[in-house]
Design goal:
Elements (H helix, E strand, L loop, with lengths): L1 E3 H4 L16 E3 L4 H18 L4 E9 L4 H11 L1 H4 L3 E10 L4 E8 L2 H12 L2 H11 L3 E11 L13 E9 L3 H20 L4 E10 L4 E8 L2 H11 L5 H8 L2 E11 L7
Antiparallel strand pairs: 1-2, 3-5, 3-6, 4-5, 4-10, 6-8, 7-9, 7-10, 8-9
């Protein structure tokens, strides 16, 4: 079996290693060596993450008939999950996704995440009380791992609001689009402040769709968000917006509502 590192990991975080500059392949037999490669790569990711925490964005799609009971089960028993690691937020998708829950988790490193996942897999109460009942309700599960941009940090708002999750699939190398991205985010912060909105965090995906950015906002309401968007789209901001969107391959956003168990409300 041949595993091409160029294909399997097309772009590690550019501040430490640019895999696109490497030209190498690894030939393996499907034995314990494969498992060792996985463990060693997790350790390598932990080393290159350094001081940056790892965040995991999970999206579960439920069968329509099961979503109500699934959310009830989650509200009653999710303390069994949060005792293992830190939950940033847990939402339902109001617009931009149907019958979805979106949650973000924080880990100290990839090794920390591996340890948490192992502990969950061997936690009988978690498996019997929650997973065995929740899993049949899931139609689909997706996840990505992310790191915060150096110029972003998690902000915890003091007010209750609604949330917007933006996803941008960027074109080219990170060094080409990170500056226009930051200028776009800074401009958005200025405009949204007038509409009582706050930036929660901006992340770059490590594992998942490459060249992908997620930005999470809290708004006082979706109508107030619209007021901020109007300010953002003023003609005086055209140069910054054009410089950014020229480098955007595709974009999507979701309107999110916090669940009772979510630390972000």
């Amino acid at each position: 079996m041949m595993i091409s590192l160029n294909k399997f990991f097309p772009l590690l975080w550019k501040r430490t290693l640019n895999v696109q500059s490497l030209s190498c392949s690894v030939y393996l037999r499907p034995t314990e060596t494969c498992l060792n490669l996985g463990v060693n790569f997790i350790r390598h990711c932990t080393q290159i993450s350094g001081k940056w925490k790892v965040y995991e964005l999970r999206t579960y799609t439920s069968y329509p008939k099961d979503i109500k009971e699934f959310l009830k089960l989650t509200e009653e028993h999710y303390h069994l999950r949060t005792k293992h690691s830190k939950l940033i937020g847990y939402w339902t998708s109001e617009i931009g996704g149907q019958n979805e829950v979106v949650h973000i988790w924080e880990y100290d490193s990839y090794l920390h995440r591996t340890s948490v996942r192992q502990n969950l897999a061997s936690d009988p109460e978690w498996l019997s009380t929650y997973i065995s009942k929740a899993a049949p309700a899931w139609m689909k599960q997706d996840n990505v791992s992310m790191v915060l941009f150096p110029w972003s940090q998690i902000y915890t708002p003091h007010m209750i609001g609604v949330y917007e999750l933006q996803e941008f699939n960027m074109i080219g190398f990170t060094k080409d689009w990170e500056k226009p991205l930051k200028e776009f985010v800074d401009l958005s912060i200025d405009c949204f402040q007038h509409a009582s909105s706050s930036l929660i965090g901006a992340w770059e995906v490590q594992f998942g769709p490459q060249n992908t950015v997620f930005i999470l906002w809290q708004h006082q309401s979706f109508d107030k968000m619209g007021e901020g968007k109007k300010l953002l789209l003023q003609e005086t901001n055209e140069q910054i917006l054009r410089s950014f969107y020229t480098l955007v391959g595709s974009a999507h956003c979701k309107a999110l509502l916090s669940c009772k168990i979510s630390p972000l409300q």
